[in-house]
Structure formats: structure tokens, C-alpha cells
Amino acid sequence: MERFQVTKKVGILGLLANIILFFMKMIVGIFFKSQAMIADGFNSIGDVFASLMTFIGNKIASSESDEDHNFGHGKAEYIFSMFISMSILVIAIKLLYDSVMSLINGNQVIFSISLLLVSIITIIIKLGLYLYTKKMYLKENNILIKGAMLDHRNDMFLTTGVLISIIFSRFEIYFVDAIVGLLISIWFLMSGVKLFKESYNVLMDISLDLNTKNQIIKTILKNKNVLQVSDVHSVSVGYKFVIVLTISVDGNLSTFKSHKIASSIENKILNKFDNIKEVFIHIHPVDK
Questions:
Q1: 78 exposed, middle or buried (CB, 10 Å; 0-12, 13-18, 19+)?
Q2: Phi, psi at residue 241, to the nearest 5°?
Q3: Which of 35, 90, 115, 211 has the fewest CB atoms within 10 Å of its CB?
Q4: pLDDT tens-place string over residues 183-198
Q5: Which of 98, 202, 198 has the alpha carbon at shortest distance from 149?
Q6: 210-286 belongs to which CATH class?
Q7: Which CATH class is domain 2-203?
């Protein structure tokens, strides 16, 4: 349950921080006509949505297995991370359009110390949130935390770009503001597509990676009673996998002995591989 408590905390922290930053950015961005700052503000409201998705997705994923969901609700993490990826893509397209129009129309940014302060405050807050969520993601390997981590990282780079454009506006070089918005929108598109693809793969029941599969087979074959491992299939149930496989054993062994071998292998796999939820072994007796 610690995994879900950590994710809940990540969602709440992100929600509170992004609401505050949204109002700060939009007020100064509109007042001083900074397209990059306004775009950064829209990104923050998108992050509010992402934080909500993290919170809700985590709550559902933490539910225990039931009659209708025998392997739990782990895929909720990936459903809601897909929503997060979609919000990133929508914001990226909006930002791309606004930046292009700003470049065409030649909008001029009004230099202000307020713009500088908001940018610096945002960078500091987002750096702290990024480092925290990265630490939690490496610990828990939760795609919802990864989505939040990517948001904070993107925001940090985005606002750094805004800061650069504001500094250039001090010297009446205004086109940098639109170019920064353009480059950031492309960055967002790439991040959104990557997160969408990762979520999509799990929801479409992607199999275990080949390296893990081979390690499991090697682990099984260490049992001297197993003659062969075949028909290894896997399906994702959230961040973990259910494995179904067949082992060949001496047909002269008793049924009790054969099932004891299978139980031993199941326990060994579950203890060794953290990303395995269940193991189902079919025993195939052969003429040794």
C-alpha cells in the first residue's frame, strides 16, 4: 500500500503547486503580453488536470481484487496516464498554434521584473517537484508518478525558455518569445506521444520483455526435475504480469511430486521477480 500512498502524495502536491502557478502566470502573462508566459500558464492548468488524473487513477488502482476484477485494478494507472498524455498533446497543439500566430503577427512582450520573478519562482518549485517525483518513480516504478515527473520536468524547461525570452525582450528582441513557445510545443508533443505509447502498450496487453522472459526460463531450468520449458505466455495487469507456461517432467513421477515441483517454481519466480503477480504452470509428463 505504500506505493499508492506515495502516488497520492505526489498527486496532491502537484495539484496545489500547479493551481498557484497557473494564476501567477496568467495574470502577469496577460498584463505584460508575454505569449510564452501565457502558454506556460495554460500548461499549468493542464498540469492541474494531470495531477487530478494521478490522484483518481491511483485511488482506483489501489482497490483490492474482487469478483469482477480477479487480478485487481492495476490497469487504472495506465488508463489515467493515457488521459495525462492526451492533455499534454492538446496543450502542445494549442501552444504550437499560438506561437506560430505570435511569430506571424509580431507580438511584442512588455519587459517586467514581475515576469522574471514568476519565471524564477516557477523554475525553483518545479525543480523541487521534479527531483521529488523522480526519486519516488525510481522507488515505486509507477507510470502515474512518471507522468507527473515528466510534467514537472517539461515545466522546468518551458519556464527556463520563457525566462530567456523575457530577458531578450529587455533588449527589444521580441521574436524569441514566439520561437521559444514553438520549440516547447514540439518538446511537449514528443513527450505526450511517448507517454501515450507506453500506456497504450500495457492496455493492449503487451508481453514481458524478452530479457525477463529468458531469466524466468533459466530460473525454472535450474530445477533438475524440469526437462523443458515451453509455451511461455504473459499478460500485463497494471505494472505487473501474469505468466502462463508449461513445464515437461518425467511422466513416471507421482501427481503429488509433479505439483510440488510446480509450486516450488511458482514461489521462486514470485520471490525473485517483483513485476510478476501470478504464475500458472501446466505440467506436461513425458517419457524420459
A1: buried
A2: -125, 150
A3: 211
A4: 878 877 887 888 888 7
A5: 198
A6: alpha beta
A7: mainly alpha
